[in-house]
Amino acid sequence: MFFLVSEQDWILESHSQRKLVDIEPYLMHVGKPWRKNKELVESDEDQKKPHKEHQKQVDRSHIKTSPSAGIEAKHSDVTSKQFSPTKIKQWAKNDLAQTISWLESQEEKPEPNELKAIAAEGVITCLQDAIESLKQGNDVKGVAEQWSFVPHVINELAELDGRRKEGSLSKEQLSQLAIKCKKIYQAEFAHMHDNDKKHQSKPRSDDAQYDSDDTIEMTEEEIDLACRQLPGVCGRQ
After folding, report:
1. DSSP bridge partners of 28
2. Which DSSP symbol is given to 202?
3. Helical segments of the chain, H only
4. What is the predicted pLDDT for the residue at 178?
5. Rounded CA separation 11/5 (Å)
6. From start to end residue, where is composition biased (Basic and acidic residues) (predicted)?
7. Which SS3 state, helix, strand or coil, does residue 50 take?
8. Are 6 and 23 in contact (CB under 8 A)?
């Protein structure tokens, strides 16, 4: 079923072209938009589409991570792996052992029972110097140059600090990383110290407790007296 939308428009158009023009554009199908206005409607919708597409692109641009943010995230992930708690704990053990060895190699060295404590204090002090330097906006390399023996963790921080690529950590982020390392080092040193104390206080075996200097010398009379008091042990009456 068709309806003529505008008979006058169709007649005028036919007259202007001096022929009968197609009447289809001037008809309306039941339940559908006016065919003549369809082109206008589509044109209007076409004009809206670019705007909608542009809006979608703008929205997506907000969702997408900027290149610098992406690089920073990747760099942070690499740093997390490089400075994992497991690695830092191992560095702490190695740094303490190597610092002790270095102290022992010096002409003037601490007493043996003080070596471990002094070595641990030196490593922690070096880390604190690095933290203070970073907080002031200075390089870790300058700290390393002031120490005769540099712990491995300081070299790692200095290497990271020396990278000038886009997305590298800021001084503030590096200082936070150094603080993290210091806390793990302190905890690991405390754990090692507790283990040493437990080992020292652990009861020794009977053989280890035996000392020939503690042997009691007894006369024959004293032996006979003791055996008479403990006849079941000595087998004497």
Report:
1. 3, 34
2. S
3. 7-17, 35-63, 67-82, 85-104, 115-135, 140-144, 152-162, 171-201, 206-209, 220-229, 231-234
4. 95
5. 12
6. 193-207
7. helix
8. no
Distance CA 107, CA 126 (A): 22
How confident is the model at residue 26, as a pLDDT?
A: 62
Please check whether residue 92 is in contact with residue 185, taking contact to mean a CB–CB distance below 8 angstroms: yes
Whole domain around residue 153: which residue ranges? 68-199
117 domain residue, yes or no: yes
CA–CA distance, 80 with 74 (Å, rounded to integer): 10
Instruction: Please give the Cα distance from 130 to 160 (Å, whole number).
Output: 13
User: pLDDT tens-digit profile of 122-141?
Assistant: 999 999 999 999 999 999 99
The pLDDT tens digits of the residues spanning 5-62 come to 556 676 777 777 777 767 666 665 544 443 444 444 455 555 555 555 555 554 554 4
**Tokens linked to 158:** 């200095």
Residue type, 173: Q
Domain boundary among 39, 63, 87: 63
Q: Would you state the structure tokens that stand for residue 1, as one six-digit string? A: 């079923």
For 155-208, how does the pLDDT look when each residue is reduced to its tens digit (9 = 90+)? Answer: 999 998 887 555 578 899 999 999 999 999 999 999 998 988 887 776 655 555
- For residues 146 and 63, the model is more confident at 146
Cα distance between residue 22 and residue 104, in whole Å: 107
Tokens 């880390």, residue located:
127
Q: How many domains does the chain have?
A: 2
Q: What is the DSSP letter of 146?
A: T
